[in-house]
């Protein structure tokens, strides 16, 4: 997916973006309020027309000002999901879905209604009207309707932002399933780092209408200059697979390139099969460092690591980037500890990991 957009609002805000994003998986667009996330999405959808632009998705050119190409929104095969689901209130769930399906000529249908219904788990809701659905259910129906249009691209603008924490937790697994099983690329706008950590393969960081960085989500979140801006949420993502299931102690073992980690599965989560992909997040505040491994501590995960770099993180603390045989980990430690341990790049240490959040 190629996006080259330049736009200036009367308010003085300007957006200048020139990026190539993967044609599959979830690309999260992340950044502070007012940085231009929604504006970027609207340009891709054709709802806002940039002064100059080139938008190409899956080999189709939707806008190319140099060549005089402009496809209006209705001629762009995309699905959109916003903060509030905009379903037709007078139609049942099934009729809402069918409305989406009928927007697309039969020859171009690639996602069946049955597939969309199964993927979002809404088979039991088909006869209801939107007023009889919970916020989370409405959002699932809105996504299924977007899918029923067989889009080449899904645009999601803070789809979880209007839900409380419990509804959000209920909906996240559906988003994960969608991201895993669909071959449709998703542009996902959010300002919630936990959503990025759980869902994103790729990350586009916007700041003041400019691309600050973009790349694989785990690489960017592990970068010190970026992690420093994330406060308590700074942490590393580690992708691996289930290496063992310890039924006696109710623990999962994650095997990844840099070693193994024992993790506590989230309460009520489905049993894991050996070899199943697993993503975890380790917050920098949950990692402490030692020069020798402690054998008499309650911490289960102690891994040998090499200090790569250190960066200021306020007056009292530093963020430390660690290398675990090719996998990045972050630790937040005090300046005092850095001085006492003499921490410097290249040094061998032991990372003591107090908490590991299993994400999917
Ligand atoms: N139609 C418009 N006319 C003029 N200015 C606009 C318009 N739409 C957005 N803006 C301005 O453009 C900037 C970017 O807005 P945008 O909604 O894209 O940000 P955002 O990153 O999505 O923010 P948030 O996270 O708060 O939703 C803001 O300064 C906003 O006030």
UniProtKB/TrEMBL annotation:
Residues 296-360 form the Mop domain. It holds the Pfam family TOBE. GO terms for molecular function: ATP binding. Residues 3-233 form the ABC transporter domain. The keyword Lipid biosynthesis does not apply. Gene3D superfamilies: 2.40.50.100, P-loop containing nucleotide triphosphate hydrolases (3.40.50.300). Keywords: ATP-binding, Cell inner membrane, Cell membrane, Membrane, Molybdenum, Nucleotide-binding, Translocase, Transport. The keyword Iron does not apply. SMART domains: AAA (SM00382). This is Molybdenum ABC transporter ATP-binding protein. It comes from Ottowia pentelensis. The lineage of its organism: Bacteria, Pseudomonadati, Pseudomonadota, Betaproteobacteria, Burkholderiales. The gene is modC.
